[in-house]
Amino acid sequence: MPSLTSVLGVLDPTSDRAVFRQIADALREAIDKGRFREGDKLPSETELVDHFGVSRMTVRNALSLLQQEGLAVSEHGKGVFVRPRPPVRRLASDRFARRHREQGKAAFTVEAEAAGSRPEVDNLEVKEERPSQDISARLGSPRKVLARRRRYLLDGRPVEFATSYLPLDLARNTPIAQPNPGPGGIYARLEEMGHRLDHFDEEIRARMPSPAEVRTLQLASGVPVIHLVRTAFDAEGRAVEVCDTVMAADAYVLAYQLPAN
Amino acid sequence: MPSLTSVLGVLDPTSDRAVFRQIADALREAIDKGRFREGDKLPSETELVDHFGVSRMTVRNALSLLQQEGLAVSEHGKGVFVRPRPPVRRLASDRFARRHREQGKAAFTVEAEAAGSRPEVDNLEVKEERPSQDISARLGSPRKVLARRRRYLLDGRPVEFATSYLPLDLARNTPIAQPNPGPGGIYARLEEMGHRLDHFDEEIRARMPSPAEVRTLQLASGVPVIHLVRTAFDAEGRAVEVCDTVMAADAYVLAYQLPAN
DNA sequence: GACACGTACTCGTATAGACGAGTGGGCAAG
DNA sequence: CTTGCCCACTCGTCTATACGAGTACGTGTC
After folding, report:
1. 3-state DSSP: chain B helix, strand, coil percent, rounded to 5?
2. TM segments (chains A, B) (predicted)?
3. Which nucleotides of strand C lie under 7 Å from a protein CB?
């Protein structure tokens, strides 16, 4: 195996760049050049201390930088590893087209199985509650809403946490208030109930996760979340559902098609 | 002014939660509750050291956590501040509709001025180059492409860095190869040249920025980027342009409208 | 008043040391 | 062979100290 010097080079003591940044640069470059590949173990803190002749805190600063950048993950007792790129789930903009609703299975399940992954849904919760100000405004200020919460996993890994909100007067005592709303999901039920869906508005933000989100999505540090809020409108222009979704950003690509006219 | 204890509480020595996490929790809670507001200065490291009775490194670990979460920013020589939420630029999915192209000014300029901000474009670069593998595949494998790079700023703050790629056979010796392609931008020129635009495909990812992106977008730590790749197709189904855009995630909300059928 | 300077405060960087805790392999006892 | 333990190695947390560098402000000089 090649010497650390040939892989990482040495420090430039004349540089005004902070030592821990130089070390981070060296590691980043080695990763970019493929000297360390996805899942590979980086040199241990002790090895880096010996190689660069610096204190351990300096090395840890460097490694911490790489983790903030999402390039590396540390595992207690094992080492620091080049962060593997998980398989990406692609969300196409036609995923809510009526033709997809008419089959039966949930969209998430169908797509995941087509991609060769094992889908799971957990943390199911359906309850009535008072809406937050934001949700309330989007739904036309209902006094109470039905909230449907669930978490989606691929091959055991949580990738998405979503909550649907529906005005209570619309959802109470319907299949939508059941844990399993039946084939085609709540959009199919809404249409059966006479709310022909017209269009969806989606708003997309990206940000760093809250500590709670880190827990429920088991996020590595340096992984942002995509926050998507979708509002469903029926043919009369009424907002009939708002779906608030937080996704692990390293697991998703969102795809949209826009007409040019 | 209230005592630090009433704002931040005290440590729980019996807790198994790491001290620096407890300190971060206390600060986070105080921020959430509005005890510290946007732009407010947090207690200095020294004050926190005195208040919690811990060493400075522990306090710095806590503050560093908040910065990674995007909740705080530090300024050398001044202090650590609650990160202000910059005004958000909203990108609607109809922003490339033909009717918007027919006026004249660049979309960015028009929107920014409408929102009361001062728009700027800089770092203009137009050159011919060999496409990367990804760009090449999206454009139908041209040997060379015209690359148009520019950076967008709002009120002096960089918010977006974009590169447009066009097959060279299509763009060479046209207004598109000029630094300023004229009213309506390159999409207007493409249509004048007979490439009637049919639709756009957009792919959206979110991730942490590279060090180079941190520089060009002057990103605070804890701010992800939104990476958007748009491909423009003409009526014959040919990909005539790919636009690769990196946006400061805290400056943008992307909005899309999807039909339900 | 304008300017230079010193000083106190801020965060940034780095060192050295200590102990805790998770992991995995080897070795010895059963 | 299996089980259980120990040990070596890993990263996690925390202390204590030191100096550098950017900022703000007051003070004294011109």
Report:
1. 30, 30, 35
2. none
3. 9-18, 20-24
- Please report residues of B whose CB lies closer than 8 A to that of A197: 260
Nearest to A208 among B68, B199, B204 (CB): B68
Residue A32 Cα distances to A3, A29, A37, A71, B17, angstroms: 18, 5, 9, 10, 36
Residue with tokens 């790749």: B229
CA distance linking residue B71 with residue B85, whole number of Å: 10
- What's the pLDDT band for A103 if we cut at 50, 70, 90? low
pTM equals 0.93
Q: Is A69 on the interface with B (CB under 8 A)?
A: yes
Q: Which nucleotide is nearest to A55 (CA to C1')?
A: C15
Does the structure show a pLDDT above 60 at A216? yes
Residues contacting residue B102 through CB under 8 Å, at least 6 positions apart: B184, B188
Distance of alpha carbon A248 from the chain centroid? 1
Longest CA pairwise span in chain A (Å): 74
Q: Which domains does chain A have, with CATH numbers?
A: 4-82 (1.10.10.10), 89-254 (3.40.1410.10)
* Ramachandran quadrant class, B119 (left: phi over 0; alpha: psi -120 to 50; beta: rest): beta
Within 21-60 of A, beta carbons closer than 8 Å to B belong to 25, 28, 57
State yes or no: pLDDT of A73 exceeds 90.
Answer: yes
pLDDT, tens digit (0-9, with 9 covering 90-100), for A187-205: 888 988 989 999 999 999 9
Q: Give the 3-state secondary structure of residue A157.
A: strand
**pLDDT of amino acid A92:** 84
Q: Do B249 and A205 touch (CB under 8 A)?
A: yes
CB contact under 8 A, B93 and A261: no
**CA–C1' span, A76 to D2, in Å?**
28
| pLDDT tens digits along A44-67 | 999 999 999 999 999 999 999 999
Shortest CB distance from B261 goes to which of A93, A98, A261? A98
B75 C-beta less than 7 Å away from strand D? yes
pLDDT digits (tens, 9 = 90+) for B101-149: 666 667 788 788 888 889 999 878 999 999 999 999 999 999 999 999 9
Cβ atoms within 10 Å of A39's Cβ, excluding its own: 11
Residue type, position B162, single letter: A
Cβ distance of A200 and B249 shorter than 8 Å: no
Point out the residue nearest to D15 (C-alpha to C1'). Answer: B55
Query: Which distant-in-sequence residues (6+ apart) come within 8 Å of A214 by Cβ?
Result: none
Cα B189 from Cα B105, distance rounded (Å): 13
pLDDT band, very low/low/confident/very high, at B1 (cuts 50, 70, 90): low
Q: Which of A149, A158, A167 lies closest to A231 in space, CA to CA?
A: A167
